[in-house]
Write a structure and sequence with these properties.
The protein is α/β, with parallel strands linked by helices and 182 residues long. The protein has one domain: HAD superfamily/HAD-like (Rossmann fold). It has six helices and eight strands. Strands 5-4-3-6-7-2-1-8 form an eight-stranded mixed β-sheet, covered by helices on one side. The chain starts with a strand and ends with a strand. Bound molecules: magnesium ion (MG). Magnesium ion binds next to loops.
Length: 182
């Protein structure tokens, strides 16, 4: 896991730069996050813990989340379904954050109402996701720690493929100025 800056005081910013970058959920340094005061993780589904539109969770990944020491909540724009409930169990998650009417990720309302509902302060939460707009920008503008993971699975369609390639290039570029955690 890489870190943007050692002096990680979190302020609300309109920024696409994640606070942390990890190649996968399995390589996240959860102990380090806990040392910052993080107690809860909001985790994206598609491209982060499962391939787009699927419900199959990798065992190692589920194990990493279960043993993270953090309370896990799924943060998704997906609609409610029985399969989503099963996914919640597979991920040892204690809740699912759904869009508030039309306000899904990356709206401020989406994360702010979740923080309010669970009685959490922004700096107690890390948002883990694979998308710069939905996950990283959404977290940064709400003062929630942002952690970008490399996208899981393949892209769907031309536009998604182009966006994913662009995001991957941006990730590599950001990584050059990030450092390892001691
Ligand atoms: Mg995603």
């Amino acid at each position: 896991m890489l870190i943007k800056s050692k002096n990680n005081t979190k302020k609300a910013t309109f920024s696409f730069r994640p606070d942390f970058i990890a190649t996968s959920v399995t390589t996240i340094d959860f102990e380090y996050l806990i040392s910052l005061g993080v107690s809860t993780c909001f985790v994206d589904l598609d491209g982060t813990v499962v391939s787009r539109g699927t419900f199959e969770v990798d065992k190692q990944l589920a194990h990493a989340l279960k043993n993270s020491g953090l309370d896990i909540k799924i943060a998704t724009n997906r609609p409610r379904s029985r399969s989503l409930k099963e996914l919640k169990n597979d991920l040892s998650a204690s809740g699912v954050i759904h869009p508030q009417g039309i306000f899904g990720k990356p709206s401020k309302k989406y994360l702010r109402s979740a923080l309010k509902e669970y009685g959490l302060k922004p700096h107690e939460v890390v948002m883990i996701g694979d998308r710069f707009i939905q996950d990283i920008l959404g977290a940064n503008r709400s003062s929630v720690y942002s952690l970008l993971v490399y996208k899981l699975g393949s892209s769907h369609g031309k536009v998604d493929s182009l966006l994913s390639k662009f995001e991957h290039r941006m990730t590599i570029k950001f990584e050059q100025s990030y450092s390892k955690i001691d």
